[in-house]
Design a protein that fits this description.
Elements lengths: L1 H7 L4 H38 L22 E5 L1 H4 L2 H17 L10 H5 L3 H11 L12 H19 L10 H5 L3 H14 L11 E10 L2 E10 L4 H4 L7 H8 L4 H16 L9 H4 L4 H11 L15 H17 L9 H5 L3 H15 L4
Antiparallel strand pairs: 1-2, 2-3
Helix pairs in contact: 6-7, 12-17, 14-15
Length: about 375
């Protein structure tokens, strides 16, 4: 009402002008505060949508994570999953593996999502593993060029994996968008296909937060992504045996089995003044395994056939592989375990190898 009377009064034009100016400024200030409040509300809405009761606040949440178009979706790993020791181990094992493969290329990967997204390292990795040459530009700075290179690399991967009938849970956009889950799926598949001499941690899963915008509001959900299963399943050996059952359902009996096998191997290794106390570590370099086969089959193994003091991963794998050959010569079936599994201190694999020996030679004097 006062503003109306002010406008209708011709006697006080200066004050009217002054008050109009004041009200205009006040109105502008209120409008700016309202706009700022709307922006804050929008950001808060985004944070609240993501920070559901199932998930702690995402410390690495970026503003763009809440600025989505209608029906657009964005995913990110829950921070609690990133802190999981098995997840960290998986990332480290895969990173170290890539660096080992590409050591001659003088390529050093430090952070998977930052170093692999543009396709350059993935190209070199696939070329080295598959012993091939991809028809792509060596260096691409533009986003279009990077995606074209990624497309070529991922098509080559698909050609390799298609005969397995594997699902391919990654896309060009996901890899280029630095989606760590997609990158890990890709690397695990490559390591499995090429039988990488590494030990992937089993049963690694992550909680993924999925944020989607519907009708102007952000909605979040949680999805569990399984990155690895068991070594047997990943390496294509799907048949389960007594040791799977032992580890899964009767771990209390594991010590009894280990004690029996230790007694068995020491009965023979003691002839050379050798003694085993830890199965998974003392057989990992293959030396005791080779010597044990010689003792069981009653022959001397020439020292030039294996490394008596192996000092590298490859030398240890050579020793275990040689021991496997001796087992085949002795009429045993091909071991279910891989030499790399034994070298990588996989107890289940080592027990399988020793148990095969135990069942055949346990009654030897």
């Amino acid at each position: 009402m006062s503003s109306v009377s002010l406008r209708s009064s011709p006697l006080r034009p200066p004050k009217m002008k002054k008050e109009e100016s004041f009200l205009g400024k006040l109105g502008g200030t209120l409008a700016r505060k309202k706009k700022a409040r709307e922006v804050n509300d929008l950001q808060e809405e985004g944070k609240n949508a993501i920070n559901s009761p199932m998930s702690p606040a995402l410390a690495d949440l970026h503003p763009e994570d809440t600025l989505l178009e209608e029906n657009e979706e964005r995913t990110m790993i829950d921070p609690t999953s990133k802190d999981d020791p098995k997840f960290k181990e998986l990332v480290k094992v895969l990173t170290d593996w890539i660096n080992d493969v590409l050591v001659e290329e003088r390529i050093i990967v430090k952070q998977l999502e930052e170093d692999l997204y543009d396709g350059q390292v993935l190209q070199k990795l696939l070329e080295k593993l598959a012993d091939c040459k991809l028809n792509v530009a060596e260096v691409t700075q533009s986003e279009i060029g990077q995606k074209q290179k990624l497309q070529t690399v991922l098509e080559a991967v698909q050609d390799l994996l298609r005969p397995h009938g594997w699902a391919l849970p990654w896309t060009v956009d996901a890899i280029h968008g630095k989606n760590l889950v997609a990158i890990l799926h890709l690397l695990v598949s490559l390591a499995t296909h090429f039988r990488a001499p590494i030990r992937l941690p089993e049963h690694v899963s992550v909680q993924v937060v999925v944020v989607r915008k519907r009708e102007g509001l952000l909605h979040s959900s949680h999805v569990t992504e399984e990155l690895t299963t068991t070594t047997e399943m990943m390496m294509g050996r799907f048949e389960r045996d007594a040791f799977d059952t032992l580890f899964d359902h009767a771990p209390d009996k594991l010590s009894v089995v280990k004690k029996s096998l230790i007694t068995f191997v020491n009965k023979h290794l003691n002839k050379l003044n050798l003694e085993v106390t830890e199965l998974e570590t003392q057989f990992a370099d293959g030396v005791y395994l080779v010597l044990l086969m010689g003792l069981l089959e009653d022959y001397f193994v020439p020292l030039h056939h294996f490394y008596l003091t192996p000092d590298s991963f490859d030398q240890k794998v050579h020793n275990v592989s040689f021991a496997f050959e001796l087992m085949l010569d002795g009429g045993l079936k091909k071991p279910k375990a891989r030499p790399e599994d034994v070298v990588n201190l996989d107890l289940k694999s080592t027990l399988r190898v020793l148990y095969n020996l135990f069942t055949k030679y346990k009654n030897m004097e």
